Amino acid sequence: MTRHKVLTTIFDGVPSCAPPEEILEEYYQNRIAAELAKGQTGDEGGPEVARIASYHKPFKEKKCKDCHDFTTDIGLIRPLRELCFVCHRDFLRYIKEPFVHGPVAVGDCSACHLPHTSVHSSLLEMEKSELCGKCHQEQRLAASMHERVMTHGMACSDCHDPHYGKVHYFLK
Ligand code: HEC
Ligand code: HEC
Ligand code: HEC
Ligand code: HEC
Ligand code: HEC
Questions:
Q1: Which residue ranges have their beta carbon within 6 Å of ligand 5?
Q2: From CA 114, how far away is CA 77, in angstroms rounded?
Q3: CA-CA distance, 138 to 155, in Å (whole number)?
Q4: Which terminus of the chain faces fewer neighbouring Cβ atoms within 10 Å, N or C?
Q5: If we measure between CA atoms, which residue out of 109, 63, 61 comes closest to residue 85?
Q6: Nearest CA to ligand 4 atom 34
Q7: pLDDT (tens digit, 9 = 90+) per residue, 77-103?
């Protein structure tokens, strides 16, 4: 009885499992569709058609296993805070610069970047002009200077490097 049940399960189980390439392809397409849906704005100017502005090269090339190991609990080849340094080795050097941005110093690249695709440039999670405000709501010491430049439509990263710098405040 029990033996029969097990065999049936194994037998039924195997053919119902799609080949990995198919699962990946489906995920890949769904992921892109989800990203596009998220980027849909629909403000007064009417619905804006979102488009993918940046793809992560290894994702586009479907080299999923360069980052993923789905046999582990975390599903990644390395903990999230170490993963990016595996390929972006220059960042190992940047984090030794005299001035390193808080989230970069602790490997929290995902605070600003998405891993697969984005409707914004550079795999950014948000529009470049909004990104810094996600964390920086505090009163600027140089408040009047900042207010003046920001009303002139500048982005924070026009003056500040988002990652690191040789001088205070990662000024460019
Ligand atoms: C550059 C590294 C990288 C590549 C290449 C990559 N991923 Fe990911 N993926 C990630 C990271 C990082 C996360 C987020 C993990 C977390 O937050 O714990 C993630 C999340 C996921 C998730 C979890 C759910 C979700 O949608 O966020 C799935 C499933 C996934 N990836 C599938 C894939 C597939 C399929 C491919 C290949 C087409 C792929 N990934 C390529 C880094 C990568
Ligand atoms: C398996 C190798 C690999 C890993 C791991 C990896 N990257 Fe990349 N990444 C690349 C390659 C290759 C490029 C393209 C570089 C080029 O074209 O010069 C790239 C480009 C980028 C870009 C620029 C994209 C653009 O459109 O300008 C960003 C941002 C980025 N990666 C962030 C990350 C973050 C964040 C992580 C960790 C979650 C990560 N990468 C992990 C290989 C990797
Ligand atoms: C505070 C937000 C933030 C964090 C955290 C962050 N980045 Fe970025 N990153 C940016 C912004 C903004 C850009 C776009 C810069 C531009 O267009 O001038 C960028 C651009 C990039 C690029 C494209 C090439 C370049 O250097 O301009 C790569 C690669 C990259 N980041 C990798 C990383 C990695 C790896 C980490 C983690 C060690 C990381 N980033 C952490 C905001 C961030
Ligand atoms: C995920 C949260 C986060 C985001 C997003 C973020 N920052 Fe930061 N930033 C921090 C943290 C944390 C510190 C360290 C604060 C400290 O040392 O007191 C910091 C410090 C700084 C400093 C140095 C302040 C000082 O007094 O030394 C500057 C300049 C700065 N950020 C600019 C930016 C810019 C420009 C952006 C957008 C490209 C940005 N930040 C996006 C979290 C963030
Ligand atoms: C026109 C160039 C420029 C732009 C744009 C700019 N900054 Fe600054 N920022 C500076 C300069 C210069 C300093 C140093 C002021 C000083 O030494 O008193 C500074 C200082 C800072 C500091 C640390 C000291 C302080 O005054 O609080 C933070 C944090 C900071 N900027 C964040 C931002 C953020 C976030 C944005 C976008 C909303 C931004 N900056 C846009 C030039 C700029």
A1: 132, 136, 140-142, 146, 149-150, 154, 156, 158-160, 169, 171
A2: 17
A3: 17
A4: N
A5: 109
A6: 132
A7: 999 999 999 999 999 999 999 999 999
pLDDT, residue 39, reads: 61
Nearest protein Cα to ligand 4, atom 19: 102
C-alpha torsion sign, points 18, 19, 23, 26: negative
Q: Is the pLDDT at 15 greater than 60, yes or no?
A: no
Question: What is d(CA 172, CA 167) in angstroms, rounded to the nearest whole number?
Answer: 8
Q: Which amino acid is at 95?
A: I
Distance, CA of 113 to CA of 126 (rounded, Å): 8
pLDDT value at 110 more than 90? yes
pLDDT, mean of residues 106-134: 94
Q: How far does the centroid of ligand 1 lie from the alpha carbon of residue 59, in Å? A: 8
| Type of residue numbered 83 | L
pLDDT at 16: 45
Angle at 31 between CA 43 and CA 71, to 5 degrees: 150
Residues with CB under 6 A from ligand 3: 84, 88, 91, 101, 103-104, 107-109, 111-113, 122, 124, 128, 131, 157, 162-163
